[in-house]
């Protein structure tokens, strides 16, 4: 909970204040790029408002003079709290030191960091700056597999622990403001991981679908050599082909970022990945995708503790971190707030952001009567009741039942917030299905499962559509039926 020594950062107390201070300092094109989301930005808003569907049950007189905020290990290292810096591209848009400043802040504060494929700084330099804190290389797989393979091998040689394969980006989502601004990497910035490229070079940094078939590059169908294939995102990736291929070229762990359904969580397990990261790219890809906090429980329930489940999207406070952990995440990541910190004051700004979150989480833990953060992070997806006092105190069996099960939460009044915390799920909590006001629809939704949309939510105001949509994203409140 140290406070930054930098005068400039003294009076900033929340991510909201940091954002308000940082944004006016940035050019419009950068600001819009950070804040943008796909299409009408429904999912950007939902990622945030999903947190409002939960409240925390505070316990009293529990000696909170000492709090253990340290999570289980990640890649053999114990980080400060179970929160890290998600990969975001082009960090030199925010500060001249870009990813180096972020990595130094991560190391100074003992937070982990994921580096974007689209870093402005070469991955080896970032690794050197951040040491053990730089753990993930976020990976986009290009049509030109030689380019991808080179990147993967370089990351492995440099000491990265894991590839973080982003699976929510078969094509780049349409962010209207970026299209209107004709967003481009300024000419003085380069793609550090692709030295032969620049913003106008062969790697796809475009924001419009047309960039997928950028002129001058051969298409797969021509059957040309790898060297002739485009360094653009490959929309033909599959579970069957892509994960085994990555396994064949690296010994690093392979994680997937962008899992938001139980079906894909199962496929990830079947494919033998080492971890899943629940994400919808901060709402920048599919608009109307289910909020990540609402997707989290069904993923947690499917994974059942066999591999780690991480999450990002809309996390802006200690309470948000608490809620994501209580719903079963092992680790929580921040995207845009890091860019705000970086813009505000480089490394010191990112450190300030970290201080804000750590301090706030400390308050939430103490004020809610919780002393051990690992107790919030159950493997079942149930709130802390599964391992906490609520369970010992004879809370009904339903209290520890994982959320996200068909029909769970039936009868719970829609729209009221769910309660998280030790003993949540006990009747007193009145734990309700978060997201009850919105159902989840999707491919397969018709398969007798349509009824599952908004399961338990009573009359859902909106359904959720999607593959296997019978498995509802809607009924999330653990023990909500009890
Ligand atoms: C400006 C920006 C750039 C991003 N670049 C990448 C990227 O290169 N690769 C990736 O997998 N995710 C990228 N993301 C998504 C983040 O990793 C993360 O999923 C998201 O920002 C989390 O949501 P939050 O911003 O609400 O915290 C980007 C997000 C933003 C806002």
UniProtKB/TrEMBL annotation:
* InterPro entries given in the database record: Aldolase_TIM, Alpha-hydoxy_acid_DH_FMN, FMN-dep_DH, FMN_HAD, FMN_hydac_DH_AS
Might you report a single GO cellular component term? cytoplasm
Q: FMN hydroxy acid dehydrogenase domain: from which residue to which, for each copy?
A: 7-386
Pfam entry (one): FMN_dh
Which terms does the record give in the GO molecular function aspect? FMN binding; oxidoreductase activity
- What SUPFAM superfamilies does this protein map onto? FMN-linked oxidoreductases (SSF51395)
Top-rank taxon of the source lineage equals Eukaryota
Entry annotated with the keyword Oxidoreductase? yes
| Xref: PROSITE patterns | FMN_HYDROXY_ACID_DH_1, FMN_HYDROXY_ACID_DH_2
**Which cofactors does this protein require?**
FMN
Q: Which CDD domains match?
A: alpha_hydroxyacid_oxid_FMN
The keyword tRNA processing is annotated on this UniProt entry = no
Question: Which keywords describe this protein according to UniProt?
Answer: Flavoprotein, FMN, Oxidoreductase
**Region entry Disordered, spans:** 198-229, 384-414
Query: What segments bear the compositional bias annotation Low complexity?
Result: 384-405
Into which family does the record put it? Belongs to the FMN-dependent alpha-hydroxy acid dehydrogenase family.
Q: What's the protein here called?
A: Oxidase FUB9
Q: Which gene encodes it?
A: CYB2
């Amino acid at each position: 909970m140290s406070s930054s020594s930098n005068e400039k950062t003294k009076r900033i107390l929340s991510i909201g204040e940091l954002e308000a201070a940082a944004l006016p300092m940035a050019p419009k094109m950068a600001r819009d790029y950070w804040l943008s989301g796909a299409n009408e930005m429904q999912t950007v808003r939902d990622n945030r408002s999903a947190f409002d569907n939960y409240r925390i049950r505070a316990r009293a007189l529990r000696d909170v003079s000492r709090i253990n905020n340290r999570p289980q290990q990640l890649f053999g290292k114990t980080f400060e709290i179970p929160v890290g810096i998600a990969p975001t591209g082009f960090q030199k848009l925010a500060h001249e030191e870009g990813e180096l400043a972020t990595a130094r802040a991560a190391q100074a504060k003992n937070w982990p960091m994921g580096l974007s494929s689209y870093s402005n700084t070469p991955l080896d330099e970032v690794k050197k700056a951040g040491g053990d804190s730089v753990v993930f290389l976020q990976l986009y797989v290009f049509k030109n597999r030689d380019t991808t393979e080179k990147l993967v091998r370089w990351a492995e040689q440099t000491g990265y622990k894991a590839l973080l394969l982003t699976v929510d980006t078969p094509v780049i989502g349409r962010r209207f403001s970026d299209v209107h601004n004709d967003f481009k990497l300024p000419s003085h910035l380069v793609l550090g991981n692709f030295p032969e490229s620049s913003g106008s070079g062969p790697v796809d940094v475009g924001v419009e679908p047309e960039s997928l078939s950028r002129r001058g590059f051969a298409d797969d169908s021509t059957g040309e050599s790898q060297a002739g294939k485009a360094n653009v995102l490959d929309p033909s990736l599959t579970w069957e082909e892509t994960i085994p291929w990555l396994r064949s070229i690296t010994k690093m762990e392979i994680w997937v970022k962008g899992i938001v359904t139980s079906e894909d969580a199962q496929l990830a397990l079947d494919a033998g990945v080492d971890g899943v990261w629940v994400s919808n790219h901060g709402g920048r890809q599919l608009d109307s995708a289910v909020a990540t906090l609402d997707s989290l429980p069904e993923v947690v329930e499917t994974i059942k503790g066999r591999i780690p489940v991480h999450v990002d999207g809309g996390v802006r406070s200690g309470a948000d971190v608490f809620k994501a952990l209580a719903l079963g995440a092992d680790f929580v990541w921040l995207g845009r707030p890091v860019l705000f910190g970086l813009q505000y004051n480089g490394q010191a700004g990112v450190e300030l952001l970290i201080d804000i979150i750590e301090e706030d989480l400390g308050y939430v833990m103490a004020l809610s009567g919780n002393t051990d953060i690992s107790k919030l992070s159950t493997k079942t997806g149930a709130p802390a009741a599964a391992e906490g006092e609520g369970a010992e105190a004879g809370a009904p069996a339903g209290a520890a039942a994982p959320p996200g099960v068909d029909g769970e939460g039936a009868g719970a009044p829609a729209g009221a917030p769910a309660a998280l915390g030790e003993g949540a799920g006990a009747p007193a909590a009145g734990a309700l299905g978060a997201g009850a006001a919105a159902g989840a629809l999707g491919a397969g939704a018709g398969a007798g499962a349509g009824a599952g949309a908004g399961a338990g939510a009573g009359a859902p105001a909106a359904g959720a559509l999607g593959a296997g949509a019978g498995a509802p994203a809607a009924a999330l409140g653990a023990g909500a039926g009890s």
